Amino acid sequence: MKTTKIKLVAVLLVVMAIGFSFTSLNKITVKGSDTMVILSQKWAEVYMQKHPGTTIQVTGGGSGVGIAALINGSTDIANSSRPMKSSEVEKLKARYSTLGVEIPCAKDGLSVYLNKANGVSELTIKQIGQIFAGKITNWKEVGGIDANIRLYGRESSSGTFAFFKDNVVKTDYSPSCQTLPGTAAIVNAVKKDKLGIGYGGAAYAEGVKDCKVKKDDKSPGIAPTAETIKNKTYPITRYLYMYLKSRPTGETKAFIDWILSAEGQKIITSVGYFPVK
């Protein structure tokens, strides 16, 4: 009897081990860019419907948080709305002896949000940069009413924060810029504040108006639309990336291959982003 029980326990342990192994092999973790959360959740939702044995867990936190998680081994895929920094690549190399794998997976237009009651409707890139650097502080300086400009931006771990700083502000942000934990929070703040201005992914612009952006004083103002972002006439466009420690294998590779397929890329436009090609 004891021998039978021991054999039964042994069989159960083997079955449990196989079950745990199967679960582990078919679970994919994705972490990082808040800009990409809506898109990644939709990808995960559709993919899991087609592959019931696969679990995909998507969380945000910012591009920097996602890349840090990739480096410390707590996520399979890091979403980022900016390229990896050389310092991050070095950390990855030191830990895993690899430079990582960069996969551009979508395009995004970075919108400048204005309150719908704001009389200003277009700005040059230079003016936008000067506003967020604190060099232009009153709306009358850019054709608006005589009132102080109120700034809303992302936290420093955000890839959107870094991209906007490097490509638009080109210096430090104004100390008066209120940092908020996510693009949706910025949109909500500008929606409630007639004197507010913020920035973030074009897909989030609900209840606010998109500022038309001019390359310079002589250029026309361009709004972020599917067409202008695709043909790159809108001045503030960027790629969105997935990063991995090494070349993907197994279910992770299958998921990424599907994202880059015609079916996966078609989903991008349904949530307000744009295909990578």
From TrEMBL:
Keywords linked to the UniProt accession: Phosphate transport, Signal, Transport
SUPFAM superfamilies: Periplasmic binding protein-like II
Keyword ATP-binding: no
Keyword Metal-binding part of the UniProt annotation: no
CDD domains in UniProt: PBP2_phosphate_like_1
Domain PBP: 26-263
One Pfam short name: PBP_like_2
Matching InterPro entries: PBP_domain, Phos-bd, Phosphate_ABC_transporter
Function description: Involved in the system for phosphate transport across the cytoplasmic membrane.
Family of this protein: Belongs to the PstS family.
The protein's name: Phosphate-binding protein
Record organism: Flavobacterium fructosi
Higher taxonomy: Bacteria, Pseudomonadati, Bacteroidota, Flavobacteriia, Flavobacteriales
